[in-house]
Every structure is written in structure tokens, then in C-alpha cells.
């Protein structure tokens, strides 16, 4: 469900309580553009745990493939280069 920023401003967080009774997510529209996505905190925690689980699996895969650094300076230089090239 989409609401405007003005509705959030005038109704406050009680708007979200009402919206979450009917919908599992709320999109906040600012000046005609969807700008924010709001979900209940327990759903955020589940999503965050899911993302951390994926990151952990990727790290473990890299360790098994021997694709990791033991030289921190080299690692930071590669990160800086990746940022520059992004």
C-alpha cells in the first residue's frame, strides 16, 4: 500500500499501526515518487537474519575455495580499487 509523505506527516506513526492491520508493507510516496519502504520490525529482523545467513554462506564458500586475504593492507587496497572502478 502506498501513502504520501504528507499523510505520514499529519497522521504520524499511528498511520503505520492502521496500515499494518491490513497490509504487510507500506511505501511512502514523496512528491509523486516512491521513496521509502516500511515493514514491521519483526519482519525486518527476519530479513536481516536472512541476509546475514547468505553473507555467511558466501564467506564459507570463499574460505573453502581458498579465496581470502591474510594481508589486511592488500585487502583494503583491493576494496579501494573496486570502489574507484564502481
3D architecture notes:
- By secondary structure, the protein is α+β, with helices and mostly antiparallel strands.
- The two termini are 34 Å apart.
- The protein has two domains: 2-39; 42-84.
- It has helices spanning 5-11, 14-22, 41-64, 72-84, and strands at residues 2-4, 26-30, 33-38.
- A three-stranded mixed sheet has the order 1-2-3.
- A hairpin with a 2-residue loop joins strand 2 (26-30) and strand 3.
- It has four helices and three strands, in the order E-H-H-E-E-H-H.
- The model has no long low-confidence stretch (mean pLDDT 93).
Features:
single chain, 86 residues, 2 domains, three-stranded mixed beta sheet, 16% strand
Question: Span between N and C termini?
Answer: 34 Å
SSE run: EHHEEHH
Shape verdict: elongated
Radius of gyration: 20 Å
Tell me the domain tally. 2
In DSSP terms (H or I, runs of 4 or more residues), the helix count works out at 4
Strand order of the largest sheet: 1-2-3
Oligomer: single chain
Average pLDDT level: 93
Which stretches are low in confidence, meaning pLDDT under 50 for 5 or more residues running?
none
In helices, the fraction of residues equals 55-70%
Strand proportion, as a percent range, falls in 15-25%
The largest sheet, given as strand count, sense and whether it forms a barrel, is: 3 strands, mixed
Strand tally: 3
The SS-based structural class is alpha+beta
Amino acid at each position: 500500500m502506498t501513502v504520501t509523505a504528507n499523510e505520514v506527516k499529519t497522521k504520524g506513526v499511528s498511520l503505520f499501526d492502521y496500515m499494518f492491520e491490513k497490509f504487510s508493507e507500506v511505501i511512502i510516496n514523496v512528491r509523486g515518487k516512491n521513496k521509502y519502504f516500511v515493514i514491521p520490525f519483526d519482519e525486518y529482523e527476519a530479513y536481516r537474519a536472512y541476509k546475514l545467513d547468505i553473507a555467511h554462506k558466501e564467506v564459507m564458500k570463499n574460505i573453502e575455495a581458498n579465496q581470502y586475504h591474510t594481508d589486511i593492507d592488500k585487502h583494503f587496497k583491493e576494496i579501494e580499487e573496486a570502489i574507484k572502478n564502481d
